[in-house]
Each structure stands twice: as C-alpha cells, then as structure tokens.
C-alpha cells in the first residue's frame, strides 16, 4: 500500500476520540509569513486571538493524491484572484472543530478533547503558505510578473458555541469583530454525523448564528459532519444515514437562513480510519474524505462573495430605529387632533365634570368639609398608634 512522500512512519494525525497519535512528525516551524490575517490583526488591540503563521512544511506529508487535489483547488482560487483563502470553523463543543483543523493542515496544532469540553477560550488564527504549482502571471512592459508565488490558507478555530445549556454569544460577537477586519471566504459549520436528531439547543444555535452574524453567512457555509466512519442502523444504508442527518440539519438551518440550505461534506479525523491504495482516508461509501471536503469548500468559496460582517440590522437596539420619530409624531398628532378635540367637545355638552372648572371644587363649604375630614382621619391614625 503506497504512502505519501515521507512514508507511513512520518504521518501525524490527531484523533477526535482521544486515541494515540500515530507517529510524531516534526511540526512546521518554518519562517513566519504574513498571511491574510497576520498584518490585519497586528494593530488591532481589541481582538483577543491567538495567531500562528508559517510556511506549510508539513504539506509534503500528505498522500501524493491529496496534495494534487489541494494544489488544483489552490490554483483554481488563485486564477480567480483569490490567493488568500480564509475558512472559519463554527460549532458546538466536542463536535470536532479542532480535530478538523489538525486534519486540514496535517499538524498536531490544536488540542482536542473527546468529552465535549472546549479546549480553547478564544479564536485561533492559523495561516499556512505553500508555493502555487502554476504561478499566476501578468505581462508588465513585456515581462511576465508572477502575481501570486504562494497560496495562503487561513483557518480560524473558535470556542464552542454552547456553555452549559445556553448559547455562548461572546464567541459569535468575537467572530463578528474578526469578520469586520478580514472577509471570510468559507465557513465550516461542524457537527457530528453519529447524532440522530436535531435538538432544541441545535435550533437555538442556528437562530443565534443568523441573528448575530446575519442569515447571509449560511450562503458561504459547508456543513461538515465528523465521525464519518459511522456504522448505520440495522436495515439502513450508509448513504441513507448520511442523507437523513444532513437533511435534518439543513432543514433546521433553512428556518433561520431565509431558506438557504448549506452544502455538506463528511470527514473522519480518526487515524484508524480505513484507507485506499494511496493512503488517503476513505469513508464507508468509498469517498476520499479530505479531498472531498476541500473541493466542497472551494466550490462554495468560488460560488459566493466573501462574507463580511455588516452590523446594520443585527442589534435589537438598532433595528427599526427609523420608526421612532414616526411613532412620536403619530402620538403628537393623535393627542392634538383627536384626544384634545374629544375632551373639548365633552366639556361643551357635559361641563367640566371632575375637572378644575367644576363648580363643586370651588364651593367653600365643600372644601372646608374635606379639610375637616382629612384632619379627623389624621387624629384617628395617631390615636391608633398611641393605643399600640
């Protein structure tokens, strides 16, 4: 069975379930590079994020066939003027976001926890650069100039969107701040394949994402289903199980996304996943997991404009503020032309009943009687207190 460029002994993969790492390889500690987020965040003190930008030295450890798919996708993006590509990962705790990041870059970069506890407390921005196989050139005064010698892939790993039984909106607010600085080309919304229902908490997550970040973010999203090496229930095929899970989540998202149903891809982050002849991890239906994921992400990225956070209409305090002066003007007009007019008409026909012009309130005897009644009430209250 064939292996990648360095052979099986050099591969390093992080498992979702907390199993042992196969064999450690040297992590990429190459020269630091200025990825798409590197310079942007340097002068932005309000964003509390961890950053790591370097050459993608571990790229050569991927199986040769996987490298070919990655390079083809990167070259396609560069040809469209997008040599920097940013992927945001969102999802609940313990669904496999950090494991997917490790799988995508082929490094043991992010810590993983198989028990649903978030291993990071703030976003982590990881940028890797790799030379393009087909440089994009332009003629300048008759000389070809290499426009994009390298491709920069940036992954933004985020804390889980749930704390206990409530939504962690601080994470979404931080993502919004990041998207103000750097457009997001694609979003991986990560969830597990081996869960058989969409819970009420899941729906709250979808609603919160749409409310805080805007429903338009789902147009840039690929639903990433982890734990792809699923054994379906008895009497059910693998394809049916995947379809049922994906359609359940897509349908729930559509309720809050204006009808948008994200594309989906299945991934398996376990190092013990089955492999094909070229040592690529394959799913039970024969799909090569990692190349399929990056192809889906590339298609979604090329098919939509990068997501940029727009605060207009996102905050309940600012929503429909244009109506405030209209409502105030309506109240003034209603009082002046309807309420005041009705009161004047009533007084014309019935007198100033119970009003300041009512004759009874100008009667000296009546006023003296009321004052005496008040003094008597005060005397009785004092007598009660003294009796106690």
Structural commentary:
This protein is α/β, with parallel strands linked by helices and 388 residues long. 36% of the residues lie in helices and 17% in strands. The chain has helices spanning 38-42, 64-79, 97-105, 169-181, 200-213, 238-254, 289-302, 323-350, 364-387, and strands at residues 50-55, 84-91, 124-140, 143-157, 162-163, 166-167, 186-192, 221-226, 263-266. The strands form 2 sheets. The chain has a 7-stranded mixed beta sheet, sandwiched between helices. A two-stranded antiparallel ribbon has the order 5-6. A hairpin with a 2-residue loop joins strand 3 (124-140) and strand 4. Helix 2 (64-79) packs parallel to helix 7 (289-302). The protein is elongated and about 110 Å long. The protein starts with 37 loop residues before the first helix and ends with a helix. The model is unreliable at 1-39 (pLDDT under 50).
What string, H for helix and E for strand, traces the elements in order? HEHEHEEEEHEHEHEHHH
- Share of helical residues: 25-40%
| Average pLDDT level | 81
Report the sheet-strand fraction.
15-25%
Biggest sheet statistics:
7 strands, mixed
């Amino acid at each position: 069975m064939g292996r990648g460029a360095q052979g099986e002994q050099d591969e390093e993969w992080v498992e979702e379930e907390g199993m042992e790492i196969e064999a450690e390889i040297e992590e990429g500690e190459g020269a630091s590079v200025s990825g798409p987020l590197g310079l942007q965040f340097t002068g932005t003190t309000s964003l509390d994020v961890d950053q790591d930008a370097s050459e993608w030295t571990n790229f050569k450890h991927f199986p040769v066939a996987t490298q070919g798919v990655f390079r083809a996708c990167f070259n396609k993006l560069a040809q469209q003027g997008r040599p920097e590509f940013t992927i945001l990962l969102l999802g609940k705790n313990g669904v496999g976001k950090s494991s997917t990041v490790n799988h995508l870059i082929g490094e043991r970069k992010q810590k993983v926890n198989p028990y649903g506890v978030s291993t990071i407390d703030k976003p982590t921005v990881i940028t890797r650069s790799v030379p393009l196989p087909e440089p994009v050139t332009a003629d300048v005064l008759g000389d070809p100039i290499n426009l994009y010698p390298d491709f920069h892939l940036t992954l933004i790993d985020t804390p889980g969107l749930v704390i206990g039984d409530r939504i962690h909106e601080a994470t979404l607010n931080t993502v919004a701040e990041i998207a103000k600085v750097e457009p997001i080309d694609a979003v991986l919304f990560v969830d597990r394949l081996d869960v058989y229902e969409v819970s009420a908490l899941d729906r709250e997550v979808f609603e919160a994402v749409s409310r805080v970040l805007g429903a338009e973010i789902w147009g840039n999203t690929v639903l990433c289903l982890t734990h792809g090496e699923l054994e379906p229930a008895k009497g059910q095929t693998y394809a049916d199980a995947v379809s049922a899970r994906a359609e359940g989540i897509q349908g729930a998202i559509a309720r809050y996304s204006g009808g948008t149903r994200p594309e989906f891809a299945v991934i398996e982050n376990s190092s013990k996943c089955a492999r094909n002849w070229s040592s690529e991890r394959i799913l039970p239906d024969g799909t090569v997991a990692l190349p399929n994921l990056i192809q889906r992400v590339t298609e979604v990225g090329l098919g939509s404009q990068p997501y940029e956070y727009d605060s207009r209409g996102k905050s309940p305090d600012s929503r429909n503020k244009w109506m405030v002066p209209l409502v105030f003007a309506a109240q003034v007009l209603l009082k002046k032309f309807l309420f005041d007019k009705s009161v004047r008409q009533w007084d014309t026909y019935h007198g100033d009943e119970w009003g300041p012009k009512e004759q009874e309130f100008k009667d000296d005897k009546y006023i003296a009687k009321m004052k005496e009644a008040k003094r008597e009430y005060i005397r009785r209250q004092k007598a009660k207190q003294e009796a106690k």
